[in-house]
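Hi W.,

Here's what went into the run:
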Amino acid sequence: MSNPSLLILAGDGIGPEVMEQVKRIIGWYGDKRALTFDVSEDLVGGAAYDAHGVPLHDDTMAKAQEVDAVLLGAVGGPKYDDLDFSVKPERGLLRLRKEMDLFSNLRPAQCFDALADFSSLKKDIVAGLDIMIVRELTSGVYFGEPRGISVIDNERVGVNTQRYTESEIARVARSAFELAKKRGNKVCSMEKANVMESGILWRDVVNEVHQADYADVELSHMYADNGAMQLVRAPKQFDVILTDNLFGDILSDCAAMLTGSLGMLPSASLGLPMANGRPKALYEPVHGSAPDITGQGKANPIACILSFAMALRYSFDQGAEADRLEAAIEAVLASGARTADLMGPEGGTPMSTTDMGDAILAALDASV
Ligand code: NAD
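Here's what came out:
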C-alpha cells in the first residue's frame, strides 16, 4: 500500500513559520511511528501571486484534488491589500474550498487545562472543554439568490436569501453524525425552526438522516439563540454542534474564544468521500498571516500542529496518534512553556516558534 499523501501550502506571513514546525512533527511520525506521508509542497495566496500572477495556480488546484489531505498555513498581508479582488490572496483559499466542495467546516473548541485562565469565562466552566462545531460552509444565506441592494418605493432595500436543499442538509448532517461516532456520540442541531421555514426543513432532514442511519447517536435540537446562551452558560453539555452557515459563523467564533488565544485554534473543512473512502479535506489554523509578528520567531505553531492532529484523526483514522499529539501539547503547556501570545499578566520569558516545536517533539519522544 502506498503512503498517504499530503499537500502542504504554507502561504504567507507566519504561515511558513508555523508550517515548518508541522513538517518536523510529520517527520517524527515517519521516524518513530512508521507513519510515513508522501509530502509535496506548493504555493498559495500572495506567494503564488508573486510567482504566477494568480493566488492559486491551476496545477496546484489539480494537485489538491488528488492528494489525501491539504494542510494550509495562512494567506494574505499588507503587500497584497491593493490587488484587484479577483487575485487577492484569499481568493486562492476560496477557490480551494469551492472546487474541492468542502461543505463541512469543523471548528473544535478545546480548552487545555493549563490555559483555562485565559478564557473570559470562569475556569471551572471551561477547564477540560472539548466540543466540535460543524458548520455548513457552501450554501445558506451567504450564497442564496436573490440577493443584492435595490431601490423600491424610493428607498434602498437589502436582500439575502436563506436557502437550503434537502441534500445539502443531509450531507452535512451525515458529516456531524460520523464525527460524533469518533467522539462523544452526541449531536445537538441548531437552527431557528420557530421562525424560519428553512429551519423547519433543516430539523426534519436531520431527523430523517438520524433515523435512517445514525439512531445510535444521541440527537437533540436547539434554537440557535438559545444555543448561543448555552455555549457561554454551560458549554461542556455539548459534544458535536451541527448548524448552518450563518449561525455556524457566529457560534463557532463564540465557542472558539471560550478557549483563549487565536494561536491555539485549528480547523478542518471536509467534502464528500473520495474513491479511497477518505473525505476531501483541507486543514488549517483559524488565524491569519499575522503580519505584525512575521519573521520575528514569535508565532505560536500550536494551531497549525493541532490542525495536523485533526488530519490524523479525520483523514487518516489515526485517532490514537492524534490523541498522542494533543497530549504532548497539553504536557508542554502544563510545564509552563508559552509563546508570547500565551503569556499571562504575571509575565515571564516567551519561547520562540522553534523552541515550542522542540518542546512538543521532546514530549512526543517521551510518549513512546
Ligand atoms: P491574524 O489572525 O493574522 O492576526 C490577528 C492577531 O493575532 C495579530 O495580532 C497576530 O499577531 C495574532 N496572531 C495570529 N496568529 C497567531 C499565532 N499563531 N501566534 C501568535 N499570535 C498570532 O488576523 P488579521 O491581522 O486580521 O489579518 C492579517 C492577514 O491575514 C490579512 O491579510 C487577512 O486577510 C489574513 N487572514 C487570513 C486568514 C487565512 O489564511 N485563513 C484568516 C484570517 C486573516
